[in-house]
Input
Amino acid sequence: MTNLEKYKKYEELIDKVVTEYALSLFPDGLPEKLYRTGVNFTKNEYGSFVEECFVENVNYYFKGNLQIPSYNKRPSKIDVESIRLISESLSIHDLNESGLYFLVKTNTCGFAVYFKEFNDKKASIHKSEMEVIVQEKIEHYKANYLVREKQFACSYCRKATDNDKKIKSEIFARQYRNGRQSFDYCSGKCASHDQMAHEG
Ligand SMILES: [Zn+2]
Output
């Protein structure tokens, strides 16, 4: 057996335990699709939308002593030995929610969705659940950030603010012509935070 063949064999053992663990969290079977909240202002004027993701794979992030020489294509003898030790001692009880993730794809890109995002309501296997969250985000956006007549968006916090509460303030920074530029803020606090942000 070549190093790669041995490595693959141990990798499969680990995948089996990871899948078993994932199924303990998703007893109805691993999802084929999941939903998240996306942000894209070209989709709608409020930015937030429900993003449909296709699950490609379930995976696990091993830390510390369990570090896997991650999905190696040309494993060395040491890599094989290291993954052998992990695979032979690994049990479902060694795993916890913080390491589990799904590799997903959308129409535009691929990324990891960690299990904890389900707990934090940032992801769900139910579209309707994410639709409720997105609706809340849109309401929040409308109430705070949608600029109406006689209003402007604060240059720092972006909140919609009545024109008569506008505070003009000069920000000093090298990137501006003459080292300074004037911006509109909702408060003196935002003006000073923005100055600090420019000083970085
Ligand atoms: Zn502000």
About this structure: The first strand starts at residue 33 and ends at 39. Residues 15 and 45 are 43 Å apart (CA to CA).
